[in-house]
Amino acid sequence: MGMTITEKILADHSGKKEVYPGELITAKIDLAMANDVTAPLSIKTLEKYGIDRVFDPDKVALVLSHFVPAKDIKSAEQAKIVREFAKKHKIKWFFPEGEGIEHTILPEQGIVVPGDLVIGADSHTCTYGGIGAFATGVGSTDLAYALATGEIWLKVPHSMKFIFYGKLKPWVMGKDLILHTIGQIGVDGALYKAMEFEGEAIRDLSIEQRLTIANMAIEAGGKNGIIAPDEKTIEYVSARAKKPWKIYQSDPDAQYLEVYEWDASKIEPLVAWPYLPSNVHPVSESTHITIDQAFIGSCTNGRIEDLRIAATILKGKKVHPYVRCIVIPASKSVYQQALREGLIDIFIDAGCVVSVSTCGPCLGGHMGILAEGERCISTSNRNFPGRMGHPKSEAYLANPAVVAASAVLGRIAHPEEVVSLEELEVST
Ligand SMILES: CC(C)[C@H](C(=O)O)[C@@H](O)C(=O)O
Ligand code: SF4
Questions:
Q1: Does residue 145 share a domain with residue 243?
Q2: Four-point Cα dihedral 167, 172, 175, 180, nearest 10
Q3: Which of 140, 229, 289, 379 has the lowest CB atom count within 10 Å?
């Protein structure tokens, strides 16, 4: 019987010819990742069991990304635990503050490659499926086990397929395709499933936008999100891979629990209103909503292409006087590239606040927390109550073009209200 890309990766990593949905396997991991919030818990678990080594320091990534540069004494102490552990165990992929968000750094630096099996103590570890890896989030205790043994226990997920036909309208991005998906199937629509995306509209997307799609698989409950590698993936990976990679593809007769087929040319830029990523509305039905803050950043949409599109909108414009617009490049190299391209000047001239790479306001951590009753439009991935600050604040999720346009008009706006298509063509 044919296998899906997810099943093939899991079979190879568990030393089996075939695996079946529902089967329990023990798989070897290519990379175990944790951050400043979750790594200390894993480290304490290792200590509790008297384990004083990691299975392979070259296959561990520890990233200080969430509350850094330390926002208070507690976060300073969390970071200190991770720093000392990384030093002691000679962890190869240790990224201190300012290097960026784990989900941006690892694919960008070729530390995760297609065909890898990656687990991370962070729910958005699923991001790496955008380049054809199997990647999933686990709890800190599972991560501790993986750090000690190099293995993880997994139940093989059933696969669901999402096919997007057609060409995208202007200003529609990968973010809108995943918001559409979550809006259609709900936040538990893919519970413990492998979400496989394909079709012309997916093939047309850059790798960065594919990473955005896989990043939000968890918002539909998915075990992983995955897009089979193609020539664009190979080009992206060839330029940065730190190790060999392996391309897997689903067999034509692979089994799917469900297959969804959508005409991508009919999709508008979308906005997920509070308080669920599935509460999706077209931007044209959201323009009455005024905002206090706009946030461009996070592991969902803080990559260079996202900043470029935001800069296209903000160039020569001013952020609305009642809005603060916060721009946080998702990694140091995105930041440097944005500096080189003059994007940071565009943002600062427009009146944005630009910060060093960190998760920041995405999880209401620091660098832009919302007060009671305030509304923020954000390029991030979650809008639960209190996600970005006060329990009675509101977060709206959208693509970076919509967020930038909203920053200018002070209310949720379609990018074409701010920039004409001719201007878009000139600048891209
Ligand atoms: C801090 C971490 C455990 C958390 C996650 O797992 O997703 C965070 O990154 C988030 O986005 O809420
Ligand atoms: S940017 Fe947001 S979603 Fe991504 S890892 Fe950080 S807190 Fe989690």
A1: yes
A2: -70
A3: 289
Q: Do 119 and 234 belong together in one domain?
A: yes
Q: Which of 295, 362, 383 to mutate to test the pocket of ligand 2 (most atoms within 8 A of CB)?
A: 362
Is there a single domain that holds both residue 25 and residue 154? yes
Write down the pLDDT at residue 423: 75
Distance in Å, CA 365 to ligand 2 centroid: 10
Q: Compare 423 and 127 and report the one with higher pLDDT.
A: 127
Pair 381, 237 in one domain: no
Q: Which string of DSSP letters, residue by residue, matches 246-307?
A: ------TTB--SEEEEEEGGGPPPEEE-TT-TT-EEEGGGSTT-B-SEEEE-HHHH-SHHHH
User: Roughly what angle, to the nearest 10 degrees, separates helices 140-149 and 39-48?
Assistant: 60
Query: Which candidate, 122, 257, 276, places its Cα nearest to that of 187?
Result: 276
**What's the number of domains the chain is made of?**
2
Q: Name the residue of 104, 124, 127, 388 whose CB sits within 8 Å of the most ligand 1 atoms, as the mutation to test its pocket.
A: 124
Q: Give pTM, 2 decimals.
A: 0.98
Containing H/E element for 105? helix 102-108
Q: Which of 231, 262, 293 is the last residue of a domain?
A: 262
Adjacent-strand bridge partners of 353: 326
**Which ligand places an atom closest to the C-alpha of 40?**
1
CA of 35 to the centre of ligand 1 (A): 9
Helices (H) and strands (E) counted in the chain, each on its own, are 15, 18
How much is the pLDDT for 427? 62
Q: What is the CATH number of the domain that holds 329?
A: 3.30.499.10
Residue 244 and residue 144 share a domain: yes
ipTM: 0.99
For residue 292, what are the domain limits? Answer: 270-427
**pLDDT given for residue 424 in this prediction:** 72
Distance 123 CA to ligand 1 centre (A): 6
Cα 206 to chain centroid, rounded: 14
Distances in whole angstroms, Cα of residue 193 to Cα of each of 136, 220, 224: 11, 9, 7
Q: Is the pLDDT of residue 426 over 80?
A: no
Ligand nearest to the CA of 35: 1
- Known binding-site residues for [4Fe-4S] cluster equal 299, 359, 362
Question: Residues 212, 101: one domain?
Answer: yes
Same domain for 254 and 141?
yes
pLDDT of residue 428: 57
The closest-lying atom of ligand 2 relative to the alpha carbon of residue 102 is 5
Q: Hey, which residues does 31 pair with through a beta bridge?
A: 118
